[in-house]
Amino acid sequence: MLVVAFIALRNPKHPATAAGTRTASLAPPTSAPAGPSGSSGSPGSRSSGTGSVVPSGGTGSSGSLTGALPLIVLNNTTISGLAQQAAQRFESGGWTVTRYGNLQNNILSTVAYYDPSVPTAKATALALQRQYPTIKRVVPKFPELPSGPIIVVLTPDYSPG
Question: What is the pLDDT of residues 8-67, one digit of tens each?
């Protein structure tokens, strides 16, 4: 399995992720405590609630797509607890975060990956980026990421303010 992951990460279609190893650990929504920092887990683990969720209020400046799809937030920095902090920030802005955790990969800048098979995922990710300009890019997700319509990967250029 490690060989398959290595080959997949070397895929030239995804230059932002080439030449790096990836490990991820995911935690439940921010209402539950996160697991130990830096632990490895299965990015394929699923939790319920990955369907469309529109919270009351919280449309912000992004219009009606705010919170229309749930987010997964992954910390790709050395800052402990950053994914949980960002998840709380996104939830305060009207978004639903189903999981957060850590990722080790060569991601170039803070990005919202969207699942192109979900009809409104790209538009929703763009709405998230408008609300949080610290998200530098919105691009289709690559297969090694956890299952979900929108996965936000935080890199050292992420700023919580």
Answer: 333 333 434 333 334 455 655 444 333 333 333 333 332 333 332 333 333 344 355 666
Look at the alpha carbons of 126, 50, 91, 65 in this order and tell me if their dihedral is positive or negative.
positive
Using DSSP's 3-state secondary structure scheme, residue 102 falls into strand
d(CA 32, CA 129): 26
Contact 71, 90 (CB under 8 A): yes
Domain ranges (residues) in the chain: 2-154
pLDDT at 20: 38
Asked if residue 35 lies in contact with residue 102, where contact means CB atoms within 8 angstroms, the answer is no
Q: Pull the structure tokens for residue 42.
A: 């299965």
Residue in the structure block whose two tokens are 């303010």: 161
Q: What is the third-level CATH fold of 2-154?
A: Alpha-Beta Plaits (3.30.70)
